[in-house]
Amino acid sequence: MKFTKLQKEEILHKIEVRQESIEDDPESGTEYENTEGALDFLASKIRTDRMDFEFEEIEWLKAELENSEDICLSNYKSIGIGVMGAANSMRNAINKL
């Protein structure tokens, strides 16, 4: 199963944010994130609907998607039921891995 448009947008956004953060503070990156070209290659896979992820990519994706899901759920009280769709989408993306 491939990622939905929303899932792809969220993952690509997470990759971009991490790349910017690591550029500003290389020590903040994990071993995987600091591997040259790793996040670019992952972004390429996401854009082209490739689902043949390596173990490190799966672990990174799970962590980032779980973080997104947690953020959605923590905003439930202030934003309302609308965030439940996004939270469910992130959980669905994790299940695709």
Note the topology.
Blueprint: H1 5-24, H2 38-47, H3 55-74, H4 76-79, H5 82-96
Helix % is: over 70%
Order of helix and strand elements from N to C terminus: HHHHH
Mean pLDDT: 93
The percent range for strand residues is under 5%
Number of strands: 0
Structural class: mainly alpha
Largest sheet: none
Silhouette: globular
Helix segment tally: 5
Radius of gyration: 14 Å
Distance separating the two termini: 9 Å
Q: Uncertain regions: pLDDT < 50 for 5+ in a row?
A: none
Structure, explained:
The protein is mainly α and 97 residues long. 71% of the residues lie in helices and 0% in strands. It contains 5 helices and no strands. The chain has helices at 5-24, 38-47, 55-74, 76-79, 82-96. Helix 1 packs antiparallel against helix 2 and helix 3 packs antiparallel against helix 5 (82-96). The radius of gyration is 14 Å and the shape is globular. It starts with a helix and ends with a helix. The mean pLDDT is 93.
Essential attributes:
97 residues, mainly alpha, 5 helices, 71% helix, globular
Short description:
Helices cover 71% and strands 0% of the residues. The chain is mainly alpha-helical and 97 residues long.
